[in-house]
């Protein structure tokens, strides 16, 4: 049985699409068709933005509601998401190949974020009165930024949607979300949840479509702010469109982070196996913050290579919906050939292939699989050390001392995540502080809703999560009183 939808969620109302075009979704594991949805066209985006505009501009509307009323809707959205959680995990896993056990971890962020921002908006004063220097008082008022265009990728689709939806709703914005064509079934389940939670008319729309539709939405005259998560190439083009419109934009882009193993790190897989796996290989390598450049002290180089060889060759590769799978297929045929191209590049640049290599994993003759691959013997100048691969491919690079480890970590166009592994907390902290990156974990990695997440250099502009994430959806206005 396939999951087929006939209507689009436009302004909170299930609506007939403007054309007969459809997006057909295949299972990443079996390549079988598992569902289809209408593809939104420009007329549908126009309708979604018009509905969002009305909801935002309407006197007494959503944007002017007391924070408590909006917080109640967010709390209800958390409950409605949880009601559908298992269906959402299954849809994500079937579509993009995320192992189901990992979907149950990575895609549980949305209700956490809905509740986190509900609490934050309850506590945050709408205005602050300051004693002025030239004026009697300056009242600084926060207000929602307006109609938000949110563009999300397919790799962790629900959590990445919620990182925009939760603060946007909390702030009082209305929002039009464009999911990736690879992951649309879960987006419709989120729309069901929003409808059941009573998100008011006009406030939330879902317009599934490709890059062209995304570009149309980004440049739409009715949009006030753009929030984009995706590749650095896509982000650059979104940034150019926003630059000419002088439209505020948040960009969460690609990464090529370093996992720095210090010479005192505990590498016993019984202690650190799960954390090391999560920080370097989660979701089949399809997570932006993974530490895919493993930096190893030369005196423990062979031991580090052996540790990762064990980790990778011991991970069950298979159908994403199989409970025992740790590494599933990639999200699409395109991704499979892109990642295979990088495996070729590593081999042709002279890497030692410690695990994996070209070809399909044994016994898996369908699905967009690659073999999890571990490269050794390359420097930081190799293509596989410089470019984001977005697959289960790691490269171990040797270094002499902590200063060189930091230098190699920073020798990258990107700066999104990273980890430091050490049994000395102070030493780990000082290395972590020296890495040029937006976020870094010590002996593990997990973004936390309380603290800003985002990249430096080519990894992006702006922050999500924490109060900083809410600020991205708010304007501040100063009222001078004499
Ligand atoms: P992508 O850039 O191809 O597409 C992402 C989304 O943007 C899709 O919805 C796509 O249709 C849309 N899009 C692409 N080009 C566009 C344009 N010019 N105008 C408007 N919309 C456009 O990225 P992808 O391959 O789907 O996702 C993987 C990438 O996302 C990786 O580079 C990964 O690192 C990055 N990512 C970053 C973060 C982060 O928080 N920094 C999180 C997840 C993924």
Q: What spatial order of strands do you see in the largest sheet?
A: 15-16-17-14-13-19-20
Average pLDDT, to the nearest integer?
98
Structural class category: alpha/beta
Cα end-to-end separation:
69 Å
Provide keyphrases for this structure.
482 residues; alpha/beta; Aldehyde Dehydrogenase, Chain A, domain 1; Aldehyde Dehydrogenase, Chain A, domain 2; 2 domains; 7-stranded mixed beta sheet; 16 helices; 23 strands; globular; binds nicotinamide-adenine-dinucleotide
Summarize this structure briefly:
The chain is an alpha/beta fold. The chain is built from 16 helices and 23 strands. The strands form 6 sheets. Strands 15-16-17-14-13-19-20 form a 7-stranded mixed beta sheet, sandwiched between helices. Strands 10-9-8-11-12-22 form a 6-stranded mixed beta sheet, with helices on both faces.
Describe, in plain words, how this protein is organized in 3D:
The chain has a 7-stranded mixed sheet, with helices on both faces. The chain folds into 2 domains: 3-253 and 457-481, 3-Layer(aba) Sandwich (Aldehyde Dehydrogenase, Chain A, domain 1); 258-442, Aldehyde Dehydrogenase, Chain A, domain 2 (3-Layer(aba) Sandwich). It is an alpha/beta fold. It starts with a strand and ends with a strand. Helix 2 (67-83) crosses helix 7. The chain is built from 16 helices and 23 strands. It has helices at 42-57, 67-83, 85-96, 100-106, 109-123, 157-171, 185-197, 211-218, 232-245, 269-280, 301-313, 333-348, 383-386, 402-410, 425-434, 466-471, and strands spanning 3-4, 8-10, 13-15, 22-26, 33-38, 127-131, 137-144, 147-151, 174-178, 204-206, 225-229, 249-252, 258-261, 293-297, 352-357, 371-376, 393-399, 414-415, 419-421, 441-442, 456-457, 460-461, 474-481. The relative contact order is 0.14. The radius of gyration is 23 Å and the shape is globular. The active site is at 252. GO terms for molecular function: oxidoreductase activity, acting on the aldehyde or oxo group of donors, NAD or NADP as acceptor. Pfam families: Aldedh (PF00171). This is Aldehyde dehydrogenase. Belongs to the aldehyde dehydrogenase family.
């Amino acid at each position: 049985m396939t999951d087929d939808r006939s209507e689009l969620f436009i302004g909170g109302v299930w609506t007939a699409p403007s054309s007969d075009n459809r997006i057909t979704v295949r299972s990443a594991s079996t390549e079988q068709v598992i569902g289809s949805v209408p593809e939104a066209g420009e007329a549908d985006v126009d309708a979604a933005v018009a509905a969002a505009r009305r909801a935002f501009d309407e006197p007494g509307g959503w944007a002017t509601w007391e924070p408590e009323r909006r917080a109640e809707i967010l709390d209800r959205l958390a409950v409605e998401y949880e009601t559908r959680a298992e269906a959402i995990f299954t849809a994500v896993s079937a579509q993009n190949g995320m192992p189901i056990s990992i979907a149950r971890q990575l895609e549980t962020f949305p209700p956490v974020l809905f509740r986190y921002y509900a609490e934050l908006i309850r506590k945050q004063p709408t205005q602050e009165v300051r004693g002025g220097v030239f004026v009697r008082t300056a009242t600084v008022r926060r207000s929602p930024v307006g109609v938000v265009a949110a563009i999300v990728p397919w790799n962790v689709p629900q959590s990445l949607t919620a990182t925009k939806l939760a603060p946007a709703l909390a702030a009082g914005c209305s929002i039009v979300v464009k999911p990736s064509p690879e992951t649309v079934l879960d987006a419709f389940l989120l729309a069901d949840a929003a409808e059941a939670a009573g998100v008011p008319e006009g406030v939330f729309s879902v317009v599934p479509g490709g890059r062209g539709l995304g570009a149309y939405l980004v440049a739409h005259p009715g949009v006030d702010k753009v929030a984009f998560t995706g590749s650095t190439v896509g982000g650059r083009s979104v940034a150019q469109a926003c630059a000419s419109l002088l439209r505020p934009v948040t960009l969460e882009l690609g990464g090529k982070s370093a996992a720095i193993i210090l010479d005192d790190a505990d590498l016993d897989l019984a202690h650190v196996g799960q954390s090391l796996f999560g920080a370097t290989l989660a979701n089949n390598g399809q997570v932006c913050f993974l530490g895919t450049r493993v930096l190893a002290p030369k005196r423990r180089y062979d031991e580090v290579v052996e540790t990762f060889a064990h980790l990778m060759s011991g991970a069950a590769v298979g159908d994403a919906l199989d409970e025992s799978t740790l590494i599933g297929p990639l999200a699409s045929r395109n991704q499979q050939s892109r990642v295979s191209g990088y495996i070729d590049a590593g081999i042709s640049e002279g890497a030692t292939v410690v695990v994996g290599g070209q070809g399909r994993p044994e016994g898996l003759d369908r699905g967009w699989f690659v073999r999890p691959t571990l490269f050794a013997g390359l420097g930081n100048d190799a293509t596989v050390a410089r470019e984001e691969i977005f697959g289960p491919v790691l490269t171990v690079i040797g270094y002499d001392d902590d200063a060189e480890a930091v230098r190699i970590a920073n020798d990258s166009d990107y700066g999104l995540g990273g980890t430091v592994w050490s049994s000395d907390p102070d030493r780990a902290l000082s290395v972590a502080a020296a890495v040029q990156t937006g976020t870094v974990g010590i002996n593990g990695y997990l973004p936390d809703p309380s603290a800003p997440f985002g990249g430096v250099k080519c990894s992006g502009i702006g922050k999500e999560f924490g109060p900083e994430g809410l600020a991205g959806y708010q304007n501040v206005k100063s009222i001078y009183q004499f």
